[in-house]
C-alpha cells in the first residue's frame, strides 16, 4: 500500500495527463471545478490506502488509471439529471411517487413561455405599477368554483396550515375523530394543527359522529369547525357523519368559521361518468363552507399547489398574513395552473385535453387498442399475453374505486421477471412496471402512444 501511495502523481502532473484533458474537453465543467474534484478523488484514494480499504484486484493497473476512472464516474453522475422522465406502466393515474398529474399540452406551453421570458408576475400591466401574484388567477378560480375569492399556496398541506394558523392559533378547532386522516409521508391533520398553534377538539368516534357531538363541543374558545374529506380511505358499515350543509346553521349561530379540506380538488364531476363519489369544489362551497382547500396536482390535473377558495373576508385576511409570502408559488406554477383551469371552460373537451381526466376516463376497449398497436411491432423474441385487471386513480384519491383495464404481460427466456423489472427501472427513460405471474406487467392506461417508440427501444435491450 505504501508503494501505491508513492505512485500517486502530483495534482499538477495529473492535470497534464491526456485523460484529464479529454475529460475537460468533453465535459461542461470548468478546469477549476474539475481540478477540485480531482483533488477530492486523490484524497479519497489516499485515505483508503492508509486505512487498508483500497480494492485493487489487478496489480498491473496504474494508480492514475484508477484516479481517472473515478473522476470520470463523478463527471457522469454530475451530468445526469436527478429528476428524470419516467414511463408509468403501473396503471395508477395519479402516482404520488411518479409526480402525480401530468400537465396538458397548453399548460406545458404556458410554462415554457413564462420561464423563457420576463412576465407580469407582480406587475399590473393595466395600471403600470406593482401588482399582486394573487390576482393573476383569482378570477379564474372564482369562475370555476363559484367562490367569492381565492388564493394559491405551494401545496394543500400548506393551505391547511395557513388557514389554521391565521384563524385558529391558540383557539379550538372541532374535528370528527373519523376525519383525523394521515396523508403520504406520515403527515397528519392533528400534527399540522399542533404546528399551527390551534387546539384540536375531537368529537364523535371513528365510525360515527353526530350533529350533537359538534353542538356539545362548541365553547367560547371555538374558532372553527373543520371538515376533512377522507379521500384516501373509506369507512363502511355502521357509520354516520355530519355534512357541511348540516353544520352551517351551527357555525353561523356561534359565529365560528366552517372550513372543509377537500384534498383531491375535483372540478369535473366524475360521478356523471359512473366513477366514484368524489364531491366537487363547487358542491362544497354551495353547501355552505366558508373556506375550502384542495390540491392542484390531484383530480384537478395541474401542478403542485394548494388552492384556498371561499368567502372574500377570510381570503383577504389570508393574503395579508405573513405566511402568505412564505408559502407563495412561483411564476411557472401559476402559469401551469392558469392553463389547467382554462381547460375546464369546455366540459367535453377537457376530458381529452387534460391528461388526468383522459386517463381516468379511458375505456377498456381503448386500452386494448393501445396494446394491439404496441404489440404489432413487438419482436417475436417476447412471450406475450393480455389479461384483464384493474387500475387505480391514486394520489390518495378514491381508494375504493377501480378502473377496468387490460395488461400486457411480457417475458423472455434470458431474464427473470425481477431482472427485467429492475433493469427497465434503471435505464433511460426509466420504465416502472409491475410483476404478475413471473412476467412484467404493463398497464397501457398510463402509457401514451408517443411513448411507444422509447418503450420498444428499451425492450430491444433485452433481446
From TrEMBL:
The keyword Cytoplasm applies. One of its GO terms (molecular function) is L-seryl-tRNA(Sec) selenium transferase activity. Keywords: Cytoplasm, Protein biosynthesis, Pyridoxal phosphate, Selenium, Transferase. Its cofactor is pyridoxal 5'-phosphate. It is found in: Cytoplasm. Pathway: Aminoacyl-tRNA biosynthesis; selenocysteinyl-tRNA(Sec) biosynthesis; selenocysteinyl-tRNA(Sec) from L-seryl-tRNA(Sec) (bacterial route): step 1/1. One of its GO terms (cellular component) is cytoplasm. It comes from the Bacteria. Its EC number is 2.9.1.1. It catalyses: L-seryl-tRNA(Sec) + selenophosphate + H(+) = L-selenocysteinyl-tRNA(Sec) + phosphate. It is an enzyme of class 2 (transferase). Pfam families: SelA. Its main location: cytoplasm. The modification N6-(pyridoxal phosphate)lysine is found at residue 298. GO terms for biological process: conversion of seryl-tRNAsec to selenocys-tRNAsec; selenocysteine incorporation. Converts seryl-tRNA(Sec) to selenocysteinyl-tRNA(Sec) required for selenoprotein biosynthesis. Belongs to the SelA family. This is L-seryl-tRNA(Sec) selenium transferase. It comes from Halalkalibacter alkaliphilus.
Amino acid at each position: 500500500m505504501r508503494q501505491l501511495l508513492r505512485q500517486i502523481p502530483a495534482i499538477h502532473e495529473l492535470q497534464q495527463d491526456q485523460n484529464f484533458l479529454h475529460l475537460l474537453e468533453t465535459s461542461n465543467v470548468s478546469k477549476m471545478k474539475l481540478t477540485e474534484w480531482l483533488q477530492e478523488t486523490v484524497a479519497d484514494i489516499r485515505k483508503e490506502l492508509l486505512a487498508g480499504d483500497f480494492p485493487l484486484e489487478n496489480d498491473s493497473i496504474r494508480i492514475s488509471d484508477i484516479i481517472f476512472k473515478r473522476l470520470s464516474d463523478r463527471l457522469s453522475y454530475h451530468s445526469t439529471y436527478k429528476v428524470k422522465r419516467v414511463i408509468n406502466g403501473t396503471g395508477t393515474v395519479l402516482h404520488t411517487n411518479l409526480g402525480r398529474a401530468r400537465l396538458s399540452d397548453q399548460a406545458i406551453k404556458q410554462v415554457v413561455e413564462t420561464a423563457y421570458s420576463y412576465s407580469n408576475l407582480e406587475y399590473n400591466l393595466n395600471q403600470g405599477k406593482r401588482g399582486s401574484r394573487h390576482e393573476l388567477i383569482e378570477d379564474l378560480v372564482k369562475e370555476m368554483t363559484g367562490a367569492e375569492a381565492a388564493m394559491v399556496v405551494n401545496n394543500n398541506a400548506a393551505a391547511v396550515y395557513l388557514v389554521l394558523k391565521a384563524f385558529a392559533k391558540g383557539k379550538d378547532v372541532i374535528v370528527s375523530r373519523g376525519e383525523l386522516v394521515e396523508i403520504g409521508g406520515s403527515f397528519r391533520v392533528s400534527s399540522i394543527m399542533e404546528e399551527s398553534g390551534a387546539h384540536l377538539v375531537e368529537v364523535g368516534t371513528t365510525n360515527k359522529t353526530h350533529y350533537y357531538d359538534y353542538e356539545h363541543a362548541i365553547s367560547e374558545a371555538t374558532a372553527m369547525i373543520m371538515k376533512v374529506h377522507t379521500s384516501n380511505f373509506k369507512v363502511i358499515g355502521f357509520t354516520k357523519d355530519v355534512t357541511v350543509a348540516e353544520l352551517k346553521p351551527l357555525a353561523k349561530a356561534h359565529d365560528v368559521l366552517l372550513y372543509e379540506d377537500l384534498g383531491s380538488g375535483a372540478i369535473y364531476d366524475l360521478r356523471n361518468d359512473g366513477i366514484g363519489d368524489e364531491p366537487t369544489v363547487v358542491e362544497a362551497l354551495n353547501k355552505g363552507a366558508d373556506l375550502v382547500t384542495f390540491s392542484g396536482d390531484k383530480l384537478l390535473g395541474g401542478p403542485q399547489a394548494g388552492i384556498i377558495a371561499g368567502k372574500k373576508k377570510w381570503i383577504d385576511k389570508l393574503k395579508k398574513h405573513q405566511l402568505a409570502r412564505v408559502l407563495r408559488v412561483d411564476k411557472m406554477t401559476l402559469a401551469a395552473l392558469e392553463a389547467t383551469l382554462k381547460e375546464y371552460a369546455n366540459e367535453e373537451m377537457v376530458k381529452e385535453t387534460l391528461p388526468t381526466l383522459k386517463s381516468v376516463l379511458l375505456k377498456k376497449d381503448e386500452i386494448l387498442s393501445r396494446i394491439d398497436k404496441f404489440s404489432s411491432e413487438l419482436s417475436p423474441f417476447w412471450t406475450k399475453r393480455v389479461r384483464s385487471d384493474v387500475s387505480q386513480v391514486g394520489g390518495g384519491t378514491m381508494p375504493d374505486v377501480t378502473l377496468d383495464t387490460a395488461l400486457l404481460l411480457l417475458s423472455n427466456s434470458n431474464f427473470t421477471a425481477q431482472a427485467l423489472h429492475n433493469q427497465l427501472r434503471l435505464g433511460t427513460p426509466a420504465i416502472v412496471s409491475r410483476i404478475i405471474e413471473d412476467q412484467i406487467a404493463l398497464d397501457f392506461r398510463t402509457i401514451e402512444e408517443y411513448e411507444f417508440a422509447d418503450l420498444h427501444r428499451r425492450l430491444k435491450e433485452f433481446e
